[in-house]
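quick one before i forget lol
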Amino acid sequence: MGSNPLLDFPGAEGHLALIDERLLAAVTTDDPQLTEMTSHLIRAGGKRLRPMLGVLAAATSTEVTVDVIDGGVSVELVQVGSLYHDDVIDEADSRRGVQSVNVRWNNLTAILAGDFLLAKASEIAASLGTEVAALLARTIGRLCEGEILELRHAYSTARTEDAYFAAVEGKTASLYATACRIGAIVGGLPRDEVDALTDYGVSFGMAFQLVDDVLDLVATEEELGKPAAHDLTEGIYNLPVLRALQSDVGEELTGLLGSPIEGAEREAARSLVLQSGGIEETMAEAERHARRAQDALAPLPDSPAKAALHDGVDHVLGTVAAARP
């Protein structure tokens, strides 16, 4: 695959460098051990899609300032903090190709470090104005609601698609939408453009999560940076699985699911999902959200940033073709 348009546009290299610089500055404290813990996943890498969406949102109509960068950093800190908490919940061993914080230190440390990252995100957002602060706080709330919805349906083969999409909107799409909206607000864009970019972020986030759910089933641990088929193991039955449960293999798949599975059972369940048509149906749903994201950009003036946002959606869809055997 070619390079990601969201990360490869004029000036992107400089923006990415400044994002990383500001991220590390935000989590540097007087306590070296706390700094090591809070910077652990930041130093491990990551695409920085959320802060770059904020940058691109602003760049559709104006120059990218340090405040725009900081707006993106606040959203990225929420994302990283939520990963610390997720890894405790999931008892994960690795993240982004390195030991998870809960394994390298312990669960309590991971929870407190995640809390610290959320606090720093809120502090940065407050420095950007009351609207941004309120928006980020609301997003953290939606993130928690999405997580609770997901946990409520863990190991449930009766999970509905409505419940699945509600969790995705809270856990994933809300962060992408907020990244775009903060970039547009801090960039001083007209309100109709702020709303259009927010709509783009929602639909981009939905498409991104649908693709991520497919990748969990078709990609390798090396490609994912985390264990493959992890959602099946944890009882998070996403859209490909829900569609498979309604297919000809549904009865057999139901017999395998409903409790933790590993090894041969997990591979058998994954094989059933792959042969069910659930992957193809999920990708069709992702494509519908992708088109909505691109349509949302219509009111914006033509610019390299708008083109990058448009092409970035197609790139996300293409990651499945690149990973699938």
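fyi The CA atoms of residues 217 and 270 lie 7 Å apart.
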